Amino acid sequence: MVGAAVMGGSEVRERLSARTVRRSLAFLLLAGLFAGALAIASGARIEEADFTFSNGTEVSTLDPATVTGVPEGRVIRAIFEGLVVKHPQTLAPLPGMAESWEISPDGLTYTFHIRKNAVWTNGDPCTAHDFDYSFRRMLDPETGAEYSYQLDYLRGAKAYRTDIDPETRRPRRSWDTVGVRVADDHTLLLALEEPTHYFMALAGFYPLFPVNRRNIEEAKRDFPDTWQLEWLRPENIVTNGPYRVAARRVNDRIRLVKNPDYWDAENVAFDTIDVLAIENWSTQLNVYLTGGCHWIDQVPPLQVPNLLPREDFNPEPYFGSYFYRINVTRPPLDDVRVRKALALSIDRRAICEKVTKAGERPSYSLVPPGLPSYRNAEMEKEDLARARQLLADAGYGPGGAEFPSIEIHYNTSEKHRDVAEVIQNGWKRDLGIDVKLLNQEWKVYLDSQTNLQYDVSRSAWIGDYDDPNTFLDLFLTGGGNNKTGWGNPRYDRLIAEARKLFDPAERMKVLHDAERILMDELPIIPIYSYVTSDVVAPRLGGFHWNILDEHFPKFFYWMDDEELAAVRARQPADWVRVPFDAGPPEGQYAPARLRERRP
Amino acid sequence: MTRFLARRLAWFAITLFVVVTISFFLMRAVRGGPFDGERRLDAAVELNIKARYHLDWPPWRQFLHYVGPFNLDEHRAEFLGGDGGRVFGGVLVGDLGPSFRYRDFTVNDIIAQSLPISVLLGLVALMWALSLGISAGIASALRRGSGLDVAIRLLATGGIVLPNFVIATFLVLVFVFMLGLLPVAGWGTLKHMLLPGLALGAPFAAYIARLTRTGMLEVLSQDYIRTAHAKGLPARLVILRHALKGGLLPVISYLGPATAGILTGSLVIERIFYIPGTGSHFVNSALNRDYTLSMGVTILYTVLVYGLNTVVDFAYTLLDPRIKLEEE
């Protein structure tokens, strides 16, 4: 204070104010940043939706033609609609954009009658022309449709999409050569290459859903540079399904709102649906358990035993296989006896009971069990004595050559490592084979698999449609998804033959014979077949188990207390009831009416 | 002052260029591409997807197109053989390109959506770190050697040693499942920000506590503090007005790296608390081989880290007149 007394009064004030400014500057800066960020971030805050589910990840795009993933499929089924809709339980085709259809006796021509009250969200009627345009767009190489081969069943489609002028990158053939005809606005004729038994399942498969031509062309006109993503923005995208897109934020949510112009809008229960992109399985479960969402499709493996007694967790067979690919170009794995010895000495039960734990089933075939009309061709069950014998026959083991060390290759994940360790121990213990584990980051792993840089590689496949063909055509000689180096002309012939057969029983027999070859030669070793891991609010109606684990928001609704009680009365008595208050105030929807109308 | 800023800016340009160039070519040198998936793409389809994103061009051309300022695709300038629809493009005109993984968004869209969220999360974390760290550090320094000091130092060591996802799990267990006070995950209200902010800020709080303690101990032993006490000033004033100013200097210099660390280190916290911020893109984009998004986030973080360090150097001169910018 002595110093201050000598200074002039104004000097003191100046120093004081300079100090105050300095001090408050940092504070103001921080506060300003905070307020600004808060304002921006809270601008996106929205009301809770009627129904919320976690999709496991952010969708890569909403363009139905260019996606292949399960999460994308869920959103696309909510906003677009194809010729037919699948029954939520049986997956049988139900009227969608087509109100009826006929199949010619030879199974080669399909006639779809498009409903007259089908409209797009921009007001355009949805007609046969939209399907013609969308199929053409999907087959056009410029679109880059990953699933374009799903249309190969149409006459001339494969030639159209693969016969490309290398200069212009345009198809050389005329669109007229493809079996798609618009008879009139409301009649679409599809001519097939071969009588395809499961074509109606494909007609309800999301890559074949239509897109709106005006939507895309207006984007092309307005944004010549970036139209490929502009037409998909919430403010631009035109859809024809039960819901439309209201808002999107990457890695957060997609907000869907009911489309009032949808032909079946009166049977759509929820006004709003939120699709969350939670990637962490524990977080997802926590969000579900605290009421933040009503359906999740994955749970952390460690939590499975805790969830199993609950009424909201019911693992059911799922159309997916977990198996090991074997690189048959590398000795000694080129010897079928060696492959068989390896396959016979895997403790599948230990894997299912100690590692995966959710009720997965040991598997002895490529095609997962559960198709009513198909009989699996299985490999022999585990047999250590026989495995040792086979190895000895191949010239290894006591008295023979020493078996070279092999590597199990998998993408970095705890579960895959645990499975691989069980197998590693088994092969070491029972066959005396030295096995190393090699984990690689996902993209590197895929690259190694594609280029056959592995001995034994962890693999999985989920069926696209409920037919054995979706698994068996993977292993055609030289197929892009074969990745084993294996090939068998007789196998290729049988798969091709099955395509031409119209009689379902006969066809299944031929496919069985093909799988028999695969299970005799074992370029792959089946390990287990998947089960679903959905956790679903008990009050959710319209959610049914099916083998493809496909679910349709169109059919969802909240049960009232009466219906929930009735459902619970049918459940096993020892299930842990989950008090789940989520859902509407009673009477907000008319579940009784919906129940009657539901298929 | 002006010279200082000009020199900083020049170095900034060089740094950014080096970072962009190295990461651009490193990204492409890594095995596996953005469109490799479990389902192998049809060769013709793959070719077309690559063409859409110009991945069929030689790397040098991709690089020039990416950096700009001249656009090189079919809309390039007429004298280059294009239709002249869009002559300029690339990073230099602020266009970071389309994302490969989130195909309905541009990198600019993604950063615009996620950065405010990350900044907000970072500020909450910083506030936790500063308030907890400084108060614990002061308390620890004043009661040097006491039980409180030992406890705080133990906690601080714990905070530095424990990874933030462990802290996050613990916090969720206590505040969500035991006490039921806060939402478990998600983003939107202040309530959503408290737990992730604390989990993210905890290691920094621990470090700040240690810095504050050391700084305060040093300052408290100096003559001018003894003088202040001798003048009969109340202890509160001596500590808050005289000692703290000097004691906090190490903390201030740590703020730059801390802010950068908080912003770039939010990956795990964003995943656990399901927060749509930028942090998760930093790592995920590399895993997805999302070249453009990865580059975009790298550029963003380079700018942030560089900018923050400059601000800290600046703040130094405000707090301590002995330090001059020109001396640097």
Helices and strands in order:
The complex is a heterodimer of chains A (599) and B (328).
Chain A: H1 2-6, H2 9-43, E1 51-54, H3 70-79, E2 84-86, E3 93-95, E4 98-103, E5 109-114, H4 128-139, H5 157-162, E6 180-184, E7 187-191, H6 199-203, H7 213-222, H8 227-230, E8 243-249, E9 253-258, E10 272-276, H9 281-289, E11 295-296, H10 304-307, E12 317-326, H11 336-344, H12 348-356, E13 361-362, H13 384-393, E14 406-411, H14 414-431, E15 435-440, H15 442-450, E16 456-462, H16 469-472, H17 489-500, H18 504-521, E17 524-531, E18 535-536, E19 540-541, E20 557-558, H19 561-569, H20 591-597
Parallel strand pairs in A: 1-10, 14-15, 14-16
Antiparallel strand pairs in A: 2-3, 4-5, 5-7, 6-7, 8-9, 9-10, 11-18, 12-16, 12-17, 13-17, 19-20
Chain B: H1 2-29, H2 43-52, H3 59-67, H4 107-142, H5 147-161, H6 164-178, H7 190-220, H8 223-230, H9 235-247, H10 249-264, H11 267-272, H12 279-287, H13 291-319
Helix pairs in contact in B: 1-13, 4-5, 4-7, 4-10, 4-13, 5-7, 6-7, 7-9, 7-10, 8-9, 10-13, 12-13
Protein architecture, described:
The complex is a heterodimer of chains A (599) and B (328). Chain A has 599 residues and is an alpha+beta fold. Chain A has 20 helices and 20 strands. Chain A has helices at 2-6, 9-43, 70-79, 128-139, 157-162, 199-203, 213-222, 227-230, 281-289, 304-307, 336-344, 348-356, 384-393, 414-431, 442-450, 469-472, 489-500, 504-521, 561-569, 591-597; strands spanning 51-54, 84-86, 93-95, 98-103, 109-114, 180-184, 187-191, 243-249, 253-258, 272-276, 295-296, 317-326, 361-362, 406-411, 435-440, 456-462, 524-531, 535-536, 540-541, 557-558. In chain A, the strands form six sheets. Chain A has a six-stranded mixed sheet, with helices on both faces. In chain A, helix 12 (348-356) runs antiparallel to helix 14 and helix 17 (489-500) runs antiparallel to helix 18 (504-521). The longest helix of chain A is centred in the first third of the chain and has 35 residues, at 9-43. The termini of chain A are far apart. By secondary structure, chain B is mainly α. Chain B has a domain at 114-280: Orthogonal Bundle (MetI-like fold). In chain B, 69% of the residues lie in helices and 0% in strands. Chain B has helices at residues 2-29, 43-52, 59-67, 107-142, 147-161, 164-178, 190-220, 223-230, 235-247, 249-264, 267-272, 279-287, 291-319. Chain B is globular and about 80 Å long. Classes of the chains: A alpha+beta (599), B mainly alpha (328). At the A-B interface, helix 2, helix 9 and helix 15 of A face helix 2, helix 4, helix 12 and helix 13 of B.
